[in-house]
Amino acid sequence: MAPRVPKAQIPAALREQMTGQLGAVPEPVEVTWHSPAVARDNLEFGSRVGRWDAADASLKSFAHMAVAARVGCGWCLDIGYFQADGQNLDLAKASQVPRWREADVFTPLERDVLEYAEAMTAPPPTVSDTLSARLLDRLGPAALVELTAVIAFANLATRSNTALGIESQGYSAACAVPLTAGPQASGATPAR
What we know:
By secondary structure, the chain is an all-alpha fold.
């Protein structure tokens, strides 16, 4: 499926920079470039989110992928695997995020983070006091606030990409992490 909004022409310098970093320009950037202010602000905010360091990088990565699986954003899972590889995170675990409930590779803390990500993503959100208290106790307030903001950002990105019809771009092929069976594997229904 082609994006629902055609790709815009982005500046040559940005195209070169992104191609150098990622091997290709991300389709979400090309599509949102019809509104350069939106595209630039998304890139800037995403970059800032990536620099936060109160919560463990693997927990944030798994949480973002759990949101992507729940919403049905193949592009986000694809780039998530690619980024996990670049950060030297556990790719065996990353590949199992869409089916985390059935997979036996996650620690109890990772399972709580994945459950929290799904609970924040559910319409309406279903975060429980019990789950929040467990995470607060194990992560501390700064990391829980950061994790919550990462999950909220993941919802923005995944829902935007899905609504715009942006699909997997093949980034995960560079790190040999196959896209795990779709979001239905975790019992989630993709957003329409």
